[in-house]
Design goal:
This protein has helices spanning 2-16, 38-45, 72-78, 82-86, 135-147, 209-218, 238-241, 249-252, 280-286, 322-341, 366-382, 400-408, 427-432, 434-444, 489-509, 527-532, 536-546; strands at residues 100-101, 107-108, 128-131, 152-155, 171-174, 181-187, 198-204, 221-222, 259-265, 271-274, 296-303, 305-306, 310-318, 345-350, 354-362, 389-397, 417-426, 447-450, 473-483. It is an alpha+beta fold. A seven-stranded antiparallel beta sheet has the order 16-13-15-14-18-19-17. Strands 6-7-11-9-10 form a five-stranded antiparallel beta sheet. Strands 3-5-4 form a three-stranded parallel beta sheet, with helices on one face.
């Protein structure tokens, strides 16, 4: 295995040669004199259950272009498959976070399109790490990172719109293979009264939502979780720690509202069980206070619900006028509060001449679903004279799981370069600013997620560390930029400037609203408030208590203001 270390050295040595040496207050990265030797890594390998891993970019199998080193055909065919991407320690769901841009505009990357003529370089992909299969593996990796003052990242699936699962020249702890799943009909949290029991699903850090849903369904249960093509988002990692929204949230709350217990390894190497009876402050922070910040979560215990039938409402509309499309977006925004309070959760996407909107509601009749959605159906029909043609479908499903596999079973949705911004729109905002927000959503060809309101708004804002803005939010708006491989740093900067404009426009319209930590931008205005609200000070205290070594730091995470932009040196 040490031969792999030597091979990696040959691959990346040139691109890391200019790294500055370590100094007081800075972390050690690959290429610096402080970097551990092969013998020291060999000692670490003797302490963990698996050989060390040497992550490479997701397109590396296609290089050299004249004689590919791996299965390039598979890479091409699976490029957008989130499950394929998450199976590799060096692959990010958005490949732009595998690349690194130097101050002079040079980009270190590894492109799938080999015809661009660029070399395959390590970019932002960590260079070595531990394939963790147990808390003991994580403890050994943490101790090693502390001993050598290494820049550390934690990666599960790599779903992160700020690239928090990657860092140039870093040491990585990869939790993807911690796949234990247990269904328990009589679970009692540690320290709780014996008569306090729940029907739960206990998932290891590496379990993905498609795996969790499969096991829940086998036991005729469902649970609040992520919705994505192929179900590749992790159920045991950052989704929950950032808050965790779902199409079921208007009915059952956020992921943080359905978490009973967690286990975690802190930077001191301690393995803790946390719930409302044991280490309740850390339990509070881990439920929405941001992933990669307080420790490494090794398992999460989720409340489950009886598997219920659902009804899906789906509408597609073609529109010939920008003015009319903006009217439609505004009308849908104004309807969001009533719909989420009725239990509807779903998603909408808007383009210049077409829109798609769909939502589900559990345990309602088709008749009741039609009545609830009638205002939207009638509104779209009233616009026929203005050139709008719409098609509405109302479809019953025997179970939530049947709906999920029907609509979300196929893989896809990943493997493209992207940055986005989000806004959690409050009830007041939807009443007073819907038309103005529609202008921004139309301009960015954006989307809305109907994943709050309802039950989410009925829960105490201080019950979990999640942004208290969730408790007054109804829907989430999103704007996004994307680009093709090979784009120059200047071209990407131009797109970034456009994203910043949309961020500013939305902030000016909704200064009291917030953004979702898991689906947002580096450039959100007043990020501490945008992501954490009035919880920030308490979260910082808990962070300092459980991570005294400041080992865990991520972009725009609690405590990151103490670090430089690269998150390698403390101020």
């Amino acid at each position: 295995m040490l031969n792999a270390f030597a091979a990696l050295s040959l691959l990346v040595a040139g691109s890391f040669a200019g790294t500055s040496s370590n100094n007081t207050g800075c972390l050690c990265t690959y290429g610096q004199p402080c970097w551990p030797t092969a013998d020291q890594f060999a000692d670490l390998e003797s302490q963990v259950s698996q050989p060390l891993i040497y992550p490479v970019p997701s397109a590396s199998a296609c290089y050299p272009a004249t004689n590919p080193s791996g299965n390039c055909t598979q890479a091409v065919q699976s490029w957008t498959d989130g499950n394929w991407r998450s199976s590799m320690p060096g692959a990010m769901e958005a490949p732009n976070f595998e690349s690194f841009t130097f101050k002079d505009g040079t980009i270190s990357a590894c492109y799938l399109n080999t015809s661009l003529g660029a070399p395959c370089e390590q970019g932002n992909v960590p260079v070595i790490g531990v394939d963790a299969r147990s808390p003991q593996d994580i403890q050994a990796a943490i101790n090693f990172a502390l001993q050598y003052n290494l820049k550390l990242v934690v990666k599960n699936t790599g779903h992160d719109f700020m690239g928090r699962s990657a860092a140039r020249g870093a040491f990585v702890i990869w939790t993807h293979n911690m796949k234990n799943i247990t269904y328990n009909t009589q679970f009692t949290p540690q320290g709780a009264p014996a008569n306090e029991t729940y029907e739960v699903l206990i998932v290891g850090a590496g379990v993905q939502w498609y795996e969790a849903y499969d096991v829940a369904n086998q036991n005729r249960r469902m649970l609040v979780g992520s919705i994505s093509l192929g179900g590749s988002v992790g159920a045991g990692g950052g989704w929950l720690q950032g808050g965790g929204h779902s199409a079921l949230s208007p009915t059952h709350g956020l992921g943080v509202d359905n978490t009973i217990e967690m286990t975690v390894v802190t930077s001191t190497g301690v393995y803790l069980t946390v719930n409302k009876y044991q280490n309740p402050d850390l339990f509070w922070a881990l439920r929405g206070g941001g992933g990669g910040t307080y420790g490494i979560v090794t398992s999460i215990t989720y409340r489950t619900y009886q598997q219920l039938p659902v009804v899906m409402y789906r509408v597609h509309a073609n529109v010939t006028s920008a003015t009319v499309m903006k009217k439609i977006i505004g009308a849908i925004l104004r309807l969001q509060t009533n719909l989420t309070d009725d239990g509807w959760g779903g998603y909408g996407a808007f383009r210049s001449s077409a829109m798609e909107f769909f939502a589900i509601n559990p345990n309602v009749s088709t008749t009741a679903a039609n009545m609830s959605m009638q205002p939207l159906t009638d509104y779209l029909l009233s616009l026929e004279a203005e050139g709008v043609s719409s098609l509405v479908e109302v479809s019953p499903f025997d179970s939530w799981y049947e709906w999920y596999t029907y609509l979300w079973g196929p893989a896809g949705q990943n493997g493209y370069n992207t940055m986005l911004t989000s806004r959690l729109l409050s009830r007041d905002t939807l009443v007073n600013r819907s038309s103005d927000i529609a202008e921004v959503i139309y301009d960015c060809q954006g989307s809305i997620y109907m994943i709050a309101g309802g039950k989410v708004n009925q829960i105490d804002p201080d019950s979990a560390g999640a942004n208290p803005a969730w408790r007054n939010a109804v829907t989430q708006s999103n704007c996004e930029v994307s680009w093709q491989e090979g784009a120059t740093a200047e071209e990407i900067t131009g797109l970034t400037d456009q994203l910043k404009t949309w961020i500013k426009n939305m902030y000016d319209l909704t200064p009291e609203d917030s953004a979702y930590f898991n689906e947002a931008s580096f450039y959100e205005i007043d990020w501490q408030h945008a992501f954490f609200g009035w919880h920030y000070a308490k979260l910082k205290e808990i962070k300092d208590k459980y991570d005294p070594y400041r080992l865990f730091v991520v972009a725009k995470g609690v405590g990151s203001e103490e670090w430089n932009e690269a998150l390698t040196c403390r101020w």
